[in-house]
Design the sequence.
């Protein structure tokens, strides 16, 4: 019984939040890693790309809600995701046409593109705030819980509660589907293979007749899709506020770099590593240990490695450690 | 040149003498007329001047001495500018007492740099930082707003009444949150309660699951939330309720908001908290007075406290029998507290009559003024419970 209680407490406060957060980070990091692998620069505008795509999806959600369309227990926003992706794709394609293509033609070095992407970030920042404003926006509807704390206690008779929000479940399921689809696309379709070829060796790919502009376009569309889905899931699970998306940039980059920039598998692993360290290092393990350990060994203190104030420092620390000892990341991506 | 200097010195002396002969005294009003609370200060200033005008109208202050107000800008945030403005009030305008300042930071700066060196008493209507209670003030500093230290005690005593002995605390990570949290924890532990964990939270974050994880692990019967209703405090309560970590919350004054109830509804059922409140005869009398003689909202933030601050300074000087800084400083506590005849807003004339006859008054004012400890308002807090989706008053304390 004690063991079960310990496991439930751990799931409720560490495993479930970290898995949901990790999935959101993984989707974001996939977008960053694709841009890095194929377009060869770190896209600092990614957080605000997510914010823009999510904003379009939110506007569409409000439209659907006003028209009386709902998905029953599921959030209406899921229906609006395609609209969000379209809007976001249009924005990034226009940006590529107006901004990035110019620098690509000049064969600009990556560091210039990084600075350019920061400029783009500020523009996106402004556009999003201009359209929807800087405040919190509520757009979640449908059932809030798959199982809530009280129901769980009554069902199992355990002392510890367990709550699973429907958005956490949706996040995990959607992330699995999206990742599976992305890997199938990259490994099994002709376009996907040409993208990987372009990423591995640009000159060789050009010689084999691959149209570089087409590869770039497809990449941006996929990135827009990933960014919008990650953004909507994050917004549903937590809250939508443009500034918090900007702040997501740090953990997302940490995830992509830890996994290995340019490696899709690494991005996913990195997302979960960052999420679990953020939640796990700042968690007070007292309750779990009290259930697990025999009486005399029970801890008096909180057994908390880091105060929650240092939550954001965790991403930084992992970033520094990885860059020092394994600059190519866990999955042998490109060195930064 | 020498002659010019001595001439002006003589002129200044003469002016000083003329001062006393004419029976005129100046009170400085230093508030943040520019800066973050500039929308509140015009009404606060007008409220203080209302008290001064009321006294002048009676003509009973020290046998006909006229009072006048000199305004200055504290800026609320810039201590250097506030100090310079206060310095000007004291040295150039020659005020005998200061009504102000408003924000805690500039109030502390004016107190230590101007009021204490010059021996000028000041009464702040709105500085609530607990730090000011321990400031080195030579008994010159008073406030008609309750210190957050007092709020901490009130919150702790409410938990005592509810029979709660173990709590976890989370506060918004700024001076207000930290000060309130420190005073609450001290009061609660002194009363024998135990605090399992004190965790700060940042406002405007999307996700509070890490904070809630720690708080839940530390345990406690009630989660004390000392934050803002439209920001981090709300996120914390939402996350705590979602995970089933806590089901009862105690709310600090920043959490008192109708919007919070509308958003979180059922979650807060059975939770409780406290908020500074003014009610009773004093508040009504003040509203009537304002309706009759002035043009601002009598329910505006700190307008009541401003009227009381100015009235206390005047009555203290009347009690001391002279329009000087030392008379004001020495008698503020005396006129503010029992024993004596209770005085409501609009009754300053009657108070002056009683004082002139050598009687005692107990200034009640618009906010039930009762100065405790180092000279700060005890404050009346409304202890409420959330029942049926509404704030239900349990009692005032």
Sequence:
């Amino acid at each position: 019984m004690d063991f079960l209680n310990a496991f439930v407490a751990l799931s409720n406060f560490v495993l479930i939040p970290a898995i949901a957060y990790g999935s959101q980070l993984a989707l974001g990091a996939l977008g960053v890693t694709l841009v890095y692998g194929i377009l060869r620069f770190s896209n600092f505008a990614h957080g605000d790309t997510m914010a823009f795509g999510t904003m379009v999806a939110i506007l569409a959600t409000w439209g659907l809600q006003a028209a009386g369309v709902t998905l029953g227990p599921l959030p209406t926003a899921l229906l609006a995701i395609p609209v969000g992706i379209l809007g976001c794709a249009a924005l990034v394609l226009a940006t590529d046409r107006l901004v990035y293509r110019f620098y690509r033609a000049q064969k600009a070095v990556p560091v210039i593109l990084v600075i350019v992407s920061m400029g783009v970030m500020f523009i996106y920042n402004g556009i999003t705030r201009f359209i929807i404003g800087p405040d919190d926006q509520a757009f979640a509807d449908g059932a809030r819980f798959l199982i809530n704390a009280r129901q769980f206690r009554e069902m199992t008779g355990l002392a510890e509660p367990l709550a699973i929000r429907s958005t956490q479940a949706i996040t995990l399921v959607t992330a699995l589907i999206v990742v599976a689809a992305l890997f199938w696309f990259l490994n099994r379709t002709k376009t996907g293979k040409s993208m990987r070829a372009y990423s591995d060796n640009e000159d060789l790919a050009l010689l084999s007749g691959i149209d570089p502009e087409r590869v770039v376009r497809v990449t941006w569309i996929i990135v827009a899709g990933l960014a919008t889905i990650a953004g909507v899931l994050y917004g549903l699970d937590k809250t939508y506020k443009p500034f918090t998306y900007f702040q997501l940039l740090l953990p997302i980059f940490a995830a992509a770099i830890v996994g290995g920039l340019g490696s899709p598998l690494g991005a996913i692993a990195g997302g979960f590593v960052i999420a679990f360290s953020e939640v796990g290092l700042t968690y007070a393990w007292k309750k779990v240990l009290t259930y697990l350990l025999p009486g005399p060994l029970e801890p008096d203190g909180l057994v908390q490695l880091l105060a929650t104030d240092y939550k954001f420092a965790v991403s930084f620390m992992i970033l520094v450690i990885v860059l020092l000892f394994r600059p190519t990341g866990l999955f042998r991506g490109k060195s930064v | 040149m020498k002659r010019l200097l001595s001439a002006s010195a003589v002129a200044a002396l003469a002016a000083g003498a003329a001062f006393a002969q004419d029976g005129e005294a100046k009170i400085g009003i230093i508030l943040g007329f520019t800066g973050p609370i500039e929308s509140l200060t015009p009404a606060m200033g007008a409220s203080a001047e209302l008290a001064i005008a009321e006294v002048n109208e009676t003509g009973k202050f020290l046998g006909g001495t006229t009072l006048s107000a000199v305004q200055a800008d504290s800026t609320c945030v810039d201590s250097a500018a506030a100090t310079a403005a206060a310095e000007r009030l004291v040295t150039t305008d020659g005020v005998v007492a200061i009504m102000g300042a408003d924000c805690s930071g500039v109030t502390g700066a004016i107190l230590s740099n101007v009021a204490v060196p010059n021996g000028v008493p000041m009464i702040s209507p709105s500085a609530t930082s607990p730090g000011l209670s321990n400031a080195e003030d030579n008994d010159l500093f008073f406030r008609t707003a309750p210190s957050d230290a007092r709020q901490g005690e009130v919150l702790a005593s409410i938990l005592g009444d509810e029979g709660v002995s173990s709590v976890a605390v989370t506060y918004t990570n700024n001076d207000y949150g930290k000060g309130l949290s420190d005073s609450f924890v001290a009061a609660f532990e002194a009363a024998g309660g135990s605090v399992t964990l004190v965790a700060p939270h940042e406002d405007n974050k999307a996700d509070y699951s890490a904070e809630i994880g720690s708080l839940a692990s530390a345990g406690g019967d009630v989660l004390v939330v000392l934050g803002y209703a439209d920001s981090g405090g709300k996120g914390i309560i939402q996350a705590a309720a979602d995970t089933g970590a806590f089901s009862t919350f105690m709310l600090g004054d920043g959490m008192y908001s109708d919007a919070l109830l509308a958003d979180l509804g059922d979650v807060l059922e059975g939770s409780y908290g406290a908020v500074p409140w003014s009610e009773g005869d004093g508040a009504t009398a003040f509203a009537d007075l304002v309706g009759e003689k002035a043009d601002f909202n009598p329910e505006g933030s700190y307008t009541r406290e401003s009227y009381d601050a100015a009235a206390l300074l005047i009555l203290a000087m009347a009690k001391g029998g002279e329009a000087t800084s030392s008379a004001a400083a020495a008698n503020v506590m005396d006129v503010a507290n029992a024993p004596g005849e209770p005085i409501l807003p609009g009754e300053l004339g009657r108070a002056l009559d009683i004082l002139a006859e050598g009687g005692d008054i107990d200034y009640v004012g618009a906010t039930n003024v009762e100065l405790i400890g180092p000279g700060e308002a005890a404050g009346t807090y409304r202890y409420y419970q959330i029942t049926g989706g509404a704030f239900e008053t349990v009692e005032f304390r």
